[in-house]
Each structure stands twice: as structure tokens, then as C-alpha cells.
Write a structure and sequence with these properties.
about 50% helix; alpha+beta; about 100 residues
Length: about 100
């Protein structure tokens, strides 16, 4: 995961525009909220769990980085997945990923 993506995820967290952790993500996905789901490459359980749910509600999925990188980008412990709730942040992250 490049530093630009990590920075954008951190800014989104400080703006209160993310959900992280299984319980929060599961609740938001069930409510059909969220603009981008970011899953760590080394989180195979999370990939199996969330990818199908995301397809069902047409939620873009971005698989990148490790749990440690994802957690450190939001200033928390290692995270398997992060849900971006804001459309603007989601577009910026998708543009910055390459």
C-alpha cells in the first residue's frame, strides 16, 4: 500500500468517515452504508467474509497492504478491514492506489 493511500485513510479516520473492526463494518454493510471496503492482503478470513457481501450491494473492494499497515494508517492496532463511509474519500483512495 502506498503512502498516499495510507495518508488518505488516516485523514478519513480523523474526519470520522471510516468504520473499522468486524462489528462496525458488519453493521454498516448490513445498512448498505459505505463507499469503499479496504481489506488487508493477509486477512483471508475477512476477504471470504466481506467480498460476497460487498458484491451483493455493489460496494467497491480494494485489497491492499497488510493488517499492520492498515491499522497503522488509522492509528490503531492491526486491522483486517476498513470501510470508508464518504464517497469523496473513496474516490481519492481509488485514484491514489496506482
Amino acid at each position: 500500500m502506498n503512502t498516499r493511500v495510507q495518508s488518505l485513510i488516516g485523514i478519513a479516520r480523523r474526519a470520522g468517515k471510516i468504520a473499522s473492526g468486524d462489528a462496525q463494518i458488519e453493521a454498516m454493510v448490513k445498512k448498505r452504508k459505505g463507499s469503499l471496503l479496504i481489506i488487508a492482503e493477509d486477512a483471508h478470513g475477512a476477504q471470504k467474509k466481506y467480498v460476497q457481501w460487498a458484491k451483493d450491494i455493489s460496494l467497491p473492494v480494494f485489497i491492499a497492504g497488510t493488517k499492520l499497515e492498515l491499522g497503522s494508517s488509522i492509528g490503531l492496532s492491526p486491522r483486517s478491514a476498513v470501510l470508508i463511509l464518504d464517497q469523496g474519500f473513496a474516490k481519492a483512495i481509488l485514484l491514489a492506489r496506482s
